[in-house]
Specification:
- This protein has 151 residues and is of the alpha+beta class.
- The chain has 2 domains: 62 residues, Ribosomal Protein L9, domain 1 (3-Layer(aba) Sandwich), CATH 3.40.5.10; 74 residues, Ribosomal Protein L9, domain 2, CATH 3.10.430.100.
- It contains 3 helices and 9 strands, in the order ββαβαββαββββ.
- The strands form 3 sheets. Strands 4-9-8-6 form a 4-stranded mixed beta sheet. Strands 2-1-3 form a 3-stranded antiparallel beta sheet, with helices on one face. It has a two-stranded antiparallel ribbon with strand order 5-7.
- The longest helix is centred in the middle third of the chain and has 32 residues.
- The N and C termini lie far apart (61 Å).
Amino acid sequence: MELILKETIDSLGREGDIVKVKPGYARNYLLPKGKAVPANPANRLVLEKNKSEIRARLEKDQHTAEQLFKKLSGITLTFEELAGADEKLFGSVTTSDIQTQLADKKIEVDKKNILLAEAIKTLGERQVSIKVGFDLVAEITVVVAPQQADK
């Protein structure tokens, strides 16, 4: 089934793209949620009329994503957590913790865009990916250090 996307969807394409999807995905998700419309002749005419507006919006989104990418590049976040002798944390560092520290640095990121497969539960340094745009992913460094006894 051919559809015209009304918004950017990571797994399919950008706003204004004409995509082919399985009928069930279109019928059960994309159409009811208003994320796409059928690619019939009337909707194709509307798409052609709105092409420049869509292109301008996509360029603005891309510019915003590039600025966020520059802000995030090279950032190191340090978390001091209680840990046992085997370097395992008593708690964990989650996407919410990372989002909070980024917000403290005046960088707003949706926690859904922080690509962390599972919470960090050990001491050490690791790279964490943050999705900032349709096809743009920034890498930040997360350091988990043992909490000092004097705190």
